[in-house]
Design brief:
mainly alpha
C-alpha cells in the first residue's frame, strides 16, 4: 500500500476524534482550511499536524527526527512549505500536511517529492 494511501486510511480512523476540523463541508477539509488555521495560530492546527505526524510514524515505523511534541515547530514547518506549494490548498489537508512534514524531516533514504 502506498504511504499516502495508508496515511489517508489512518487519518480516516482519527477524524471522528477531531470535531474541530472534521466539518461537514468538503472544503473545510481542504488544505486551504488547514493553512488558514495555521496562519491564525489556532491550537487545532498544531493538534492536527501532530496527529498526521503520529500516523506517519506508524506507517513508516520511524520518527525520522521530527519534533513529536513541538506543535509550534510543526506549524512553522507546515507554513514554510504551504507558502511554496499552493497546489495542496485544494486537496484534502492530510495530503499537504504529510508532504510538509516529510519535506521538513525526511527519513534516511527517503525521496522527497
Amino acid at each position: 500500500m502506498k504511504r499516502a494511501t495508508m496515511i489517508l486510511a489512518l487519518m480516516g480512523a482519527v477524524a471522528p476524534h477531531a470535531p474541530a476540523l472534521a466539518q461537514t463541508k468538503q472544503s473545510d477539509m481542504q488544505g486551504a482550511a488547514l493553512l488558514a488555521s495555521c496562519r491564525a495560530a489556532e491550537q487545532r492546527c498544531g493538534a492536527y499536524l501532530q496527529g498526521v505526524l503520529d500516523m506517519m510514524i506508524v506507517a513508516r515505523k520511524a520518527e525520522c527526527g521530527a519534533p513529536r511534541d513541538d506543535r509550534a515547530a510543526l506549524r512553522a514547518a507546515y507554513l514554510r512549505w504551504a507558502e511554496r506549494d499552493s497546489y495542496f490548498q485544494s486537496v484534502h489537508m492530510v495530503a499537504g500536511a504529510e508532504q510538509a512534514l516529510s519535506s521538513a524531516w525526511p527519513c534516511p533514504g527517503q525521496v522527497n517529492r
